[in-house]
Amino acid sequence: MNEKKKITFLISSLSGGGAEGVCVEIANSFSAKGWNVDLVILNLGDGFYYNRISSSVNLILLNVGRAIYSPLSLIKYIYRNNVKTILVFNYELATILVILRSLFRLKLKIISRNINTFSMKMIHYKNQNFWTKYVVKNLIKSNYSKVDYVINQCNDMRNDLISEFPKLLNKSCVIYNPLQSQISNFVKKNDLNKIKKNDYILCVGRLEKQKAFHYAIEAFADLSQYFPTLRLKIVGKGSLEKNLKQKAKECHVENRIDFLGFQKNMISHYLYAKITLLTSIYEGYPNVLVESIALNTPVVAFDCKSGPSEIIKNGYNGYLVKLEDVSDLKKKILKTLTNDFDSKKMKNSILKNQFSEIFKKYENLLYSFIES
Question: pTM of this prediction?
Fold first, then answer.
Protein backbone atom coordinates (compact mmCIF):
# COMPACT_ATOMS: atom_id res chain seq x y z
CA MET A 1 0.00 0.00 0.00
CA ASN A 2 1.37 3.42 -0.97
CA GLU A 3 1.92 5.33 2.27
CA LYS A 4 1.08 8.59 0.50
CA LYS A 5 -2.48 7.34 0.11
CA LYS A 6 -3.26 6.93 3.79
CA ILE A 7 -6.07 8.92 5.40
CA THR A 8 -7.88 8.90 8.74
CA PHE A 9 -11.53 9.87 9.14
CA LEU A 10 -12.60 10.87 12.67
CA ILE A 11 -16.20 11.14 13.88
CA SER A 12 -18.03 10.74 17.18
CA SER A 13 -20.23 7.75 16.36
CA LEU A 14 -22.05 5.73 13.72
CA SER A 15 -25.50 7.05 14.66
CA GLY A 16 -28.02 7.75 11.92
CA GLY A 17 -27.24 11.40 11.27
CA GLY A 18 -26.32 13.23 8.09
CA ALA A 19 -22.66 13.78 8.98
CA GLU A 20 -22.22 10.11 9.86
CA GLY A 21 -23.78 9.04 6.57
CA VAL A 22 -21.50 11.29 4.51
CA CYS A 23 -18.45 10.18 6.50
CA VAL A 24 -19.13 6.47 5.87
CA GLU A 25 -19.93 6.98 2.17
CA ILE A 26 -16.72 8.93 1.56
CA ALA A 27 -14.57 6.56 3.63
CA ASN A 28 -15.89 3.59 1.64
CA SER A 29 -15.18 5.33 -1.65
CA PHE A 30 -11.61 6.25 -0.71
CA SER A 31 -11.01 2.64 0.29
CA ALA A 32 -12.47 1.39 -2.99
CA LYS A 33 -10.05 3.70 -4.83
CA GLY A 34 -7.06 2.04 -3.16
CA TRP A 35 -6.49 4.37 -0.23
CA ASN A 36 -5.52 2.98 3.17
CA VAL A 37 -8.48 4.25 5.21
CA ASP A 38 -8.87 4.33 8.99
CA LEU A 39 -12.33 5.26 10.27
CA VAL A 40 -11.92 6.23 13.92
CA ILE A 41 -15.03 6.57 16.07
CA LEU A 42 -15.46 7.36 19.76
CA ASN A 43 -18.40 4.95 20.11
CA LEU A 44 -20.96 3.15 18.00
CA GLY A 45 -23.91 5.27 19.10
CA ASP A 46 -27.02 3.52 17.80
CA GLY A 47 -24.82 1.81 15.19
CA PHE A 48 -27.08 2.77 12.30
CA TYR A 49 -24.25 2.93 9.74
CA TYR A 50 -22.18 0.05 11.12
CA ASN A 51 -23.30 -2.49 8.50
CA ARG A 52 -22.69 -0.02 5.67
CA ILE A 53 -18.94 0.23 6.31
CA SER A 54 -16.85 -1.52 3.67
CA SER A 55 -14.81 -4.48 4.88
CA SER A 56 -11.73 -2.78 3.40
CA VAL A 57 -12.07 0.19 5.78
CA ASN A 58 -10.13 -0.13 9.04
CA LEU A 59 -12.73 0.61 11.72
CA ILE A 60 -11.13 1.73 14.97
CA LEU A 61 -13.40 2.03 18.01
CA LEU A 62 -11.97 4.12 20.86
CA ASN A 63 -14.75 3.17 23.29
CA VAL A 64 -15.16 6.59 24.87
CA GLY A 65 -18.53 8.17 25.52
CA ARG A 66 -17.85 11.81 24.67
CA ALA A 67 -15.21 13.99 23.02
CA ILE A 68 -14.03 15.27 26.40
CA TYR A 69 -12.78 11.77 27.26
CA SER A 70 -11.02 11.19 23.92
CA PRO A 71 -7.60 12.99 24.10
CA LEU A 72 -5.61 10.10 25.61
CA SER A 73 -7.06 7.55 23.18
CA LEU A 74 -6.53 9.91 20.25
CA ILE A 75 -2.89 10.66 21.03
CA LYS A 76 -2.16 6.95 21.44
CA TYR A 77 -3.79 6.22 18.08
CA ILE A 78 -1.88 9.03 16.34
CA TYR A 79 1.52 7.90 17.69
CA ARG A 80 0.96 4.17 17.11
CA ASN A 81 -0.18 4.65 13.53
CA ASN A 82 2.10 7.53 12.54
CA VAL A 83 -0.93 9.54 11.43
CA LYS A 84 -0.19 12.54 9.21
CA THR A 85 -3.58 13.63 7.87
CA ILE A 86 -7.01 13.53 9.54
CA LEU A 87 -10.39 14.53 8.15
CA VAL A 88 -12.60 15.25 11.18
CA PHE A 89 -16.40 15.61 11.28
CA ASN A 90 -16.97 17.37 14.59
CA TYR A 91 -16.16 20.83 16.07
CA GLU A 92 -15.12 19.48 19.46
CA LEU A 93 -12.90 16.75 18.02
CA ALA A 94 -11.27 19.21 15.61
CA THR A 95 -10.52 21.51 18.54
CA ILE A 96 -9.05 18.64 20.57
CA LEU A 97 -6.78 17.71 17.65
CA VAL A 98 -5.55 21.30 17.38
CA ILE A 99 -4.73 21.37 21.09
CA LEU A 100 -3.01 17.96 20.97
CA ARG A 101 -0.96 19.02 17.96
CA SER A 102 0.28 22.08 19.83
CA LEU A 103 0.98 20.26 23.11
CA PHE A 104 2.82 17.31 21.54
CA ARG A 105 4.29 19.15 18.53
CA LEU A 106 2.70 16.72 16.13
CA LYS A 107 3.30 16.89 12.39
CA LEU A 108 -0.39 16.50 11.76
CA LYS A 109 -2.59 18.07 9.11
CA ILE A 110 -6.14 18.64 10.29
CA ILE A 111 -8.93 19.07 7.77
CA SER A 112 -12.31 19.77 9.32
CA ARG A 113 -15.69 19.30 7.74
CA ASN A 114 -17.97 22.08 8.94
CA ILE A 115 -21.15 20.20 9.85
CA ASN A 116 -23.44 23.05 10.88
CA THR A 117 -23.98 26.81 10.70
CA PHE A 118 -21.22 27.82 13.09
CA SER A 119 -22.82 30.97 14.55
CA MET A 120 -26.07 29.14 15.26
CA LYS A 121 -24.22 26.24 16.84
CA MET A 122 -22.45 28.64 19.20
CA ILE A 123 -25.82 30.12 20.19
CA HIS A 124 -27.03 26.58 20.85
CA TYR A 125 -24.06 25.99 23.16
CA LYS A 126 -25.19 28.93 25.30
CA ASN A 127 -28.26 26.94 26.32
CA GLN A 128 -26.30 23.88 27.43
CA ASN A 129 -24.77 22.93 30.78
CA PHE A 130 -22.00 24.91 32.48
CA TRP A 131 -19.17 22.85 30.95
CA THR A 132 -20.44 23.19 27.39
CA LYS A 133 -21.47 26.83 27.75
CA TYR A 134 -18.27 28.15 29.27
CA VAL A 135 -15.50 25.65 28.53
CA VAL A 136 -16.31 23.78 25.30
CA LYS A 137 -17.71 26.83 23.53
CA ASN A 138 -14.72 29.04 24.37
CA LEU A 139 -12.18 26.35 23.47
CA ILE A 140 -13.81 25.93 20.07
CA LYS A 141 -13.96 29.67 19.43
CA SER A 142 -10.29 30.13 20.33
CA ASN A 143 -8.90 27.06 18.54
CA TYR A 144 -11.11 25.97 15.66
CA SER A 145 -9.58 28.46 13.20
CA LYS A 146 -6.19 26.77 13.68
CA VAL A 147 -7.16 23.73 11.62
CA ASP A 148 -5.36 23.52 8.27
CA TYR A 149 -8.48 23.59 6.14
CA VAL A 150 -12.29 23.56 6.39
CA ILE A 151 -14.73 21.87 4.02
CA ASN A 152 -18.13 23.56 4.16
CA GLN A 153 -21.35 21.93 2.99
CA CYS A 154 -22.68 25.05 1.25
CA ASN A 155 -21.83 28.68 0.54
CA ASP A 156 -23.96 30.06 3.37
CA MET A 157 -22.05 27.92 5.85
CA ARG A 158 -18.72 29.11 4.50
CA ASN A 159 -19.77 32.77 4.62
CA ASP A 160 -21.00 32.33 8.17
CA LEU A 161 -17.75 30.64 9.23
CA ILE A 162 -15.57 33.32 7.63
CA SER A 163 -17.55 36.05 9.38
CA GLU A 164 -16.47 34.40 12.64
CA PHE A 165 -12.92 33.50 11.49
CA PRO A 166 -11.74 35.80 8.65
CA LYS A 167 -8.37 34.02 8.56
CA LEU A 168 -10.14 30.95 7.13
CA LEU A 169 -11.02 32.82 3.92
CA ASN A 170 -8.20 31.16 1.97
CA LYS A 171 -8.29 27.95 3.98
CA SER A 172 -11.80 26.78 3.17
CA CYS A 173 -13.99 25.61 0.32
CA VAL A 174 -17.50 24.33 -0.43
CA ILE A 175 -18.23 20.71 -1.27
CA TYR A 176 -21.92 19.88 -1.27
CA ASN A 177 -23.22 16.76 0.43
CA PRO A 178 -23.52 13.72 -1.83
CA LEU A 179 -26.74 11.84 -2.39
CA GLN A 180 -26.63 8.55 -0.49
CA SER A 181 -25.68 5.58 -2.67
CA GLN A 182 -28.75 3.64 -1.49
CA ILE A 183 -31.02 6.34 -2.88
CA SER A 184 -29.07 6.97 -6.09
CA ASN A 185 -29.04 3.22 -6.82
CA PHE A 186 -32.80 3.02 -6.23
CA VAL A 187 -33.42 5.95 -8.56
CA LYS A 188 -31.35 4.34 -11.33
CA LYS A 189 -33.32 1.08 -11.14
CA ASN A 190 -36.86 2.48 -10.92
CA ASP A 191 -39.16 4.70 -12.95
CA LEU A 192 -40.31 7.20 -10.34
CA ASN A 193 -42.96 8.66 -12.65
CA LYS A 194 -44.97 5.45 -12.20
CA ILE A 195 -45.16 5.92 -8.42
CA LYS A 196 -48.57 7.01 -7.16
CA LYS A 197 -48.31 9.40 -4.23
CA ASN A 198 -50.16 8.72 -0.99
CA ASP A 199 -52.08 11.40 0.86
CA TYR A 200 -49.52 12.59 3.41
CA ILE A 201 -46.94 15.27 4.14
CA LEU A 202 -43.60 14.12 5.52
CA CYS A 203 -41.31 15.65 8.17
CA VAL A 204 -37.93 14.08 8.95
CA GLY A 205 -35.49 14.92 11.73
CA ARG A 206 -34.68 14.92 15.41
CA LEU A 207 -37.57 16.00 17.61
CA GLU A 208 -35.63 18.92 19.02
CA LYS A 209 -35.93 22.70 19.14
CA GLN A 210 -33.79 23.25 16.02
CA LYS A 211 -36.22 21.35 13.79
CA ALA A 212 -39.25 23.34 15.05
CA PHE A 213 -41.84 20.75 14.05
CA HIS A 214 -44.50 22.65 16.00
CA TYR A 215 -44.72 24.97 12.99
CA ALA A 216 -45.46 21.98 10.76
CA ILE A 217 -48.24 20.89 13.12
CA GLU A 218 -49.77 24.38 13.21
CA ALA A 219 -49.77 24.72 9.42
CA PHE A 220 -51.11 21.20 8.92
CA ALA A 221 -53.91 21.80 11.43
CA ASP A 222 -55.16 24.82 9.47
CA LEU A 223 -54.89 23.12 6.09
CA SER A 224 -56.34 19.78 7.18
CA GLN A 225 -59.90 21.11 7.10
CA TYR A 226 -59.59 21.55 3.31
CA PHE A 227 -57.96 18.13 2.78
CA PRO A 228 -59.97 15.63 4.85
CA THR A 229 -57.80 12.59 4.01
CA LEU A 230 -54.40 14.30 4.26
CA ARG A 231 -52.07 13.13 7.05
CA LEU A 232 -48.81 14.39 8.53
CA LYS A 233 -46.07 11.81 9.17
CA ILE A 234 -43.16 12.75 11.43
CA VAL A 235 -40.09 10.52 11.29
CA GLY A 236 -37.55 10.92 14.07
CA LYS A 237 -37.07 10.77 17.79
CA GLY A 238 -36.03 13.26 20.43
CA SER A 239 -36.74 14.98 23.70
CA LEU A 240 -39.71 17.00 22.40
CA GLU A 241 -41.90 14.07 21.34
CA LYS A 242 -44.37 14.53 24.22
CA ASN A 243 -44.52 18.29 23.60
CA LEU A 244 -45.25 17.77 19.92
CA LYS A 245 -47.96 15.21 20.63
CA GLN A 246 -49.51 17.67 23.06
CA LYS A 247 -49.34 20.35 20.36
CA ALA A 248 -51.20 18.02 18.01
CA LYS A 249 -53.93 17.56 20.63
CA GLU A 250 -54.25 21.29 21.18
CA CYS A 251 -54.65 21.75 17.42
CA HIS A 252 -57.22 18.91 17.31
CA VAL A 253 -55.26 16.86 14.76
CA GLU A 254 -53.79 14.16 17.02
CA ASN A 255 -55.69 11.51 15.04
CA ARG A 256 -54.22 12.68 11.75
CA ILE A 257 -50.54 12.87 12.71
CA ASP A 258 -48.34 9.77 12.79
CA PHE A 259 -45.21 9.84 14.96
CA LEU A 260 -43.16 7.07 13.38
CA GLY A 261 -39.98 7.30 15.46
CA PHE A 262 -36.58 6.61 13.92
CA GLN A 263 -36.69 4.73 10.61
CA LYS A 264 -33.72 2.87 9.16
CA ASN A 265 -34.93 2.89 5.57
CA MET A 266 -36.36 6.21 4.44
CA ILE A 267 -36.81 5.57 0.73
CA SER A 268 -40.47 4.51 0.84
CA HIS A 269 -41.37 7.38 3.18
CA TYR A 270 -39.99 9.97 0.74
CA LEU A 271 -41.20 8.12 -2.34
CA TYR A 272 -44.92 8.11 -1.53
CA ALA A 273 -45.15 11.51 0.17
CA LYS A 274 -46.79 14.44 -1.58
CA ILE A 275 -44.44 16.92 0.09
CA THR A 276 -41.42 16.80 2.37
CA LEU A 277 -41.59 19.67 4.83
CA LEU A 278 -38.62 21.25 6.65
CA THR A 279 -39.36 23.79 9.37
CA SER A 280 -35.88 24.10 10.91
CA ILE A 281 -34.82 27.45 12.36
CA TYR A 282 -31.27 26.65 11.29
CA GLU A 283 -29.48 23.86 9.47
CA GLY A 284 -26.10 22.85 8.16
CA TYR A 285 -27.01 21.44 4.78
CA PRO A 286 -30.29 19.52 5.00
CA ASN A 287 -29.83 16.15 3.29
CA VAL A 288 -33.55 15.57 3.79
CA LEU A 289 -34.32 18.04 1.00
CA VAL A 290 -31.86 16.52 -1.47
CA GLU A 291 -33.06 12.98 -0.73
CA SER A 292 -36.70 13.93 -1.16
CA ILE A 293 -36.09 15.72 -4.47
CA ALA A 294 -34.07 12.75 -5.75
CA LEU A 295 -37.09 10.54 -5.08
CA ASN A 296 -39.35 12.89 -7.03
CA THR A 297 -41.08 14.44 -4.02
CA PRO A 298 -41.18 18.27 -3.93
CA VAL A 299 -40.08 20.11 -0.80
CA VAL A 300 -41.21 23.11 1.22
CA ALA A 301 -38.74 24.64 3.66
CA PHE A 302 -38.10 27.69 5.79
CA ASP A 303 -35.40 29.85 4.24
CA CYS A 304 -33.18 29.32 7.26
CA LYS A 305 -29.44 29.41 7.74
CA SER A 306 -28.20 27.48 5.89
CA GLY A 307 -28.68 25.28 2.86
CA PRO A 308 -32.34 25.44 1.72
CA SER A 309 -31.78 28.45 -0.55
CA GLU A 310 -28.96 26.55 -2.30
CA ILE A 311 -31.12 23.46 -2.83
CA ILE A 312 -34.64 24.72 -3.55
CA LYS A 313 -35.52 26.35 -6.85
CA ASN A 314 -38.97 27.84 -6.48
CA GLY A 315 -41.42 26.13 -8.79
CA TYR A 316 -38.87 23.55 -9.98
CA ASN A 317 -38.47 21.31 -6.94
CA GLY A 318 -40.51 23.05 -4.26
CA TYR A 319 -40.76 26.39 -2.47
CA LEU A 320 -38.88 28.45 0.07
CA VAL A 321 -40.84 29.97 2.97
CA LYS A 322 -40.17 33.08 5.05
CA LEU A 323 -38.44 31.99 8.25
CA GLU A 324 -40.89 31.07 11.04
CA ASP A 325 -43.82 32.52 9.05
CA VAL A 326 -46.70 30.04 9.47
CA SER A 327 -48.97 32.00 7.14
CA ASP A 328 -46.43 31.80 4.31
CA LEU A 329 -45.80 28.16 5.18
CA LYS A 330 -49.48 27.33 4.67
CA LYS A 331 -49.54 29.19 1.35
CA LYS A 332 -46.49 27.33 0.04
CA ILE A 333 -47.79 23.93 1.18
CA LEU A 334 -51.11 24.63 -0.57
CA LYS A 335 -49.28 25.78 -3.69
CA THR A 336 -47.19 22.61 -3.71
CA LEU A 337 -50.20 20.34 -3.16
CA THR A 338 -52.04 21.85 -6.09
CA ASN A 339 -49.12 22.20 -8.54
CA ASP A 340 -47.48 19.67 -10.83
CA PHE A 341 -43.70 19.43 -10.86
CA ASP A 342 -41.60 18.33 -13.82
CA SER A 343 -39.60 15.27 -12.70
CA LYS A 344 -36.77 16.02 -15.12
CA LYS A 345 -36.36 19.55 -13.75
CA MET A 346 -36.41 18.16 -10.22
CA LYS A 347 -33.69 15.65 -11.09
CA ASN A 348 -31.54 18.29 -12.78
CA SER A 349 -31.81 20.61 -9.78
CA ILE A 350 -29.62 18.30 -7.67
CA LEU A 351 -26.95 17.33 -10.21
CA LYS A 352 -24.41 19.06 -7.98
CA ASN A 353 -25.09 16.39 -5.34
CA GLN A 354 -24.04 13.44 -7.49
CA PHE A 355 -21.46 11.40 -5.63
CA SER A 356 -18.91 10.90 -8.42
CA GLU A 357 -18.22 14.62 -8.79
CA ILE A 358 -18.20 15.21 -5.05
CA PHE A 359 -15.74 12.38 -4.45
CA LYS A 360 -13.34 13.85 -7.03
CA LYS A 361 -13.32 17.12 -5.08
CA TYR A 362 -12.57 15.33 -1.82
CA GLU A 363 -9.84 13.25 -3.41
CA ASN A 364 -8.14 16.22 -5.09
CA LEU A 365 -8.21 18.17 -1.84
CA LEU A 366 -6.75 15.33 0.25
CA TYR A 367 -4.04 14.65 -2.36
CA SER A 368 -2.99 18.30 -2.16
CA PHE A 369 -2.41 17.99 1.60
CA ILE A 370 -0.71 14.61 1.50
CA GLU A 371 1.67 15.67 -1.26
CA SER A 372 2.49 19.10 0.20
Answer: 0.91
